[in-house]
Specification:
about 45% helix; 8 helices; alpha/beta; globular; six-stranded parallel sheet; Rossmann fold; binds nicotinamide-adenine-dinucleotide; about 240 residues; single chain
Length: about 240
């Protein structure tokens, strides 16, 4: 009789866009999956929490552990964008974006790591942004937060490698989600999605499933020798 355990994954931002696609993919791949998001979802094992609220996160992680077992996979996809000319950017808006996109990753990693350390096996995938590669006008706070996530990823990978835990980042570029369409609707993209497709080497917009596929690979057993890497999924927009 097989005694293979079913691993448990937590996906933040799992109620929408990329996080939702990652959760769906991991469920299809046979993992136990719980999602954490500000916005409730109808899926089983969806928990409502703000990733900046450590006390609530610890409470939710404890519930997930009881329901599904130790959490050895974490995908940090919760995030906020923001568009403002730097000279007009308020410190409150700067802090809000850094709080969610960077401090949220700090809290979620710290809350989930005890299970991974105990198991001697773990996978963390942080969803950063291709804008950290290129820079992006009017998004200094967002790009600073995502660049910091890439840096955190590389450093944490070095700390956790000896513990059997890999840490990688997937920076998406131009993925068709509510975040992208809202920005298009507010004319914040410097053109329509169609205009951008014409400038994208593979000539299509990215799909949340493209990011989910990269996460599924990085989480798999066979990716155990890959850590501290920033795996761009952007249709060739950034090389
Ligand atoms: N769509 C793109 O082209 C693109 C490009 C680069 C990076 N990203 C990144 O991918 C990730 C997912 O973005 P998306 O495009 O799917 O956006 P989305 O807006 O569709 O989904 C983001 C989810 O995060 C949740 N969230 C936001 N703040 C939260 C908080 N404080 N606590 C808990 N949950 C919170 C939202 O409720 C939402 O469900 C984000 O980190 C985003 O920065 C997206």
């Amino acid at each position: 009789m097989s005694t293979q355990i079913t691993r448990t994954a937590v996906v933040t931002g799992g109620s929408s866009g990329i996080g939702r696609a990652v959760a769906e993919r991991l469920r299809a791949d046979g993992y136990n999956v719980a999602t954490i998001d500000l916005t409730p979802s109808d899926e089983k094992y969806s928990y409502t929490a703000n990733v900046t609220d450590r006390a609530r996160l610890d409470e939710v992680l404890a519930e997930i552990r009881t329901e599904l077992g130790p959490v050895t996979i974490l995908v940090n996809a919760a995030g906020l964008d923001g568009f403002q000319r730097f000279t007009k950017l308020s410190f409150d808006d700067w802090k809000r974006v850094l709080d969610v996109n960077l401090d949220g990753v700090f809290h979620c990693c710290q809350a989930a790591l005890p299970d991974m350390l105990e198991a001697g096996w773990g996978r963390i995938v942080n969803i950063s942004s291709s804008s950290a590669h290129s820079g992006q006008p009017f998004m200094t706070h967002y790009v600073a937060s995502k660049s910091a996530v890439n840096g955190l990823t590389k450093s944490l990978a070095l700390e956790l490698g000896p513990e059997g835990i890999t840490v990688n980042a997937v920076p998406p570029g131009f993925i068709d989600t509510p975040m992208l369409r809202t920005a298009e609707g507010k004319r914040l993209l410097g053109g329509t999605v169609e205009d951008h497709i014409a400038k994208t080497p593979v000539r299509r917009v990215g799909r949340p499933e493209d990011i989910a596929a990269a996460c599924a690979f990085l989480i798999s057993e066979e990716a155990g020798y890959i850590t501290g890497q920033i795996l761009g999924v952007n249709g060739g927009r950034n090389t």
